[in-house]
Amino acid sequence: MTETAAPTPAPAIQPKRRRWGRTALEFGAILAIYFAIRGYQTRNLVVGEAPELPSTLIDGTPSPEAPVAVHFFASWCGVCEMEAGNVRTLASHHSVLAIASQSGDDDAVRDYLVEHDLGAAAIAVDPRGTLAQQFGVHAFPATFFLDAAGRIVASEVGYTSTLGLLLRAWWAR
User: Fold this and answer.
1) For the chain: N or C, fewer Cβ within 10 A?
2) Nearest to 146 by CA among 113, 126, 162, 169
3) CA-to-CA distance for 153 and 47, rounded, in angstroms?
4) Domain for residue 165, yes or no?
5) Can you give the residue range of the structural domain that contains 152?
6) What's the number of domains the chain is made of?
7) Reported pTM
8) CATH of the domain at 106
């Protein structure tokens, strides 16, 4: 009787391919979800020419003529608080007009600014959210990056890192 040799097992290449394929599929799904959420958040934001900006700041001085960034925040927004340091860093390198929207009157905004120190940013108040509506802002924080001609070249909704803010400001100019 002849004994047949047991078949040799196939190399383990197939399971690795399946793992890589599954990983790629999961990564693709995460990216799709991210871009869907981003698209939803930015769907109403103004593009092109920026709406007219406030002419005076909370301290009575004139608004900057050509800010690189227009940053909308609200005193009741937790994400805005987390991002305040990033905006402070951006404002130390570029002209930033920060607009307190739906955050109360000038005194309430001043109290908030003392507590959270937005630093070098020029601050304007939008008590009823009218300016935010003109920019299409429905979620905070929202930041618009303008070129020298006042056109919006990029915008972000939600938390943005310091590096992300600085790179977008650099690209805008």
Assistant:
1) N
2) 169
3) 7
4) yes
5) 48-172
6) 1
7) 0.79
8) 3.40.30.10
DSSP 14-67: HHHHHHHHHHHHHHHHHHHHHHHHHHHHTTT---EEPPPPPSB-TTSSBPPSS-
Identity of the residue numbered 10: A
Task: Indicate whether 167 belongs to any domain.
Answer: yes
Contact between residue 123 and residue 100 where contact means Cβ atoms under 8 Å apart: yes
For 120, left (φ over 0), alpha (ψ -120 to 50), or beta?
alpha
H or E, element range at 11: none
Cα gap 58→124, rounded to integer Å:
5
Residue at 129 is within a domain:
yes
pLDDT tens, residue order, the chain (173 aa): 566 666 666 555 556 667 888 888 888 888 888 888 777 777 778 888 999 999 989 988 998 888 899 999 999 999 999 999 999 999 999 999 999 999 988 999 988 888 877 666 889 999 999 999 999 999 999 999 999 999 999 999 999 999 999 999 998 87
Using alpha carbons, list the distances in angstroms from residue 155 to 23, 87, 105, 116, 135.
Answer: 31, 14, 26, 23, 10
- Do 126 and 132 touch, CB atoms closer than 8 A? yes
**Does residue 89 belong to any structural domain of this protein?**
yes
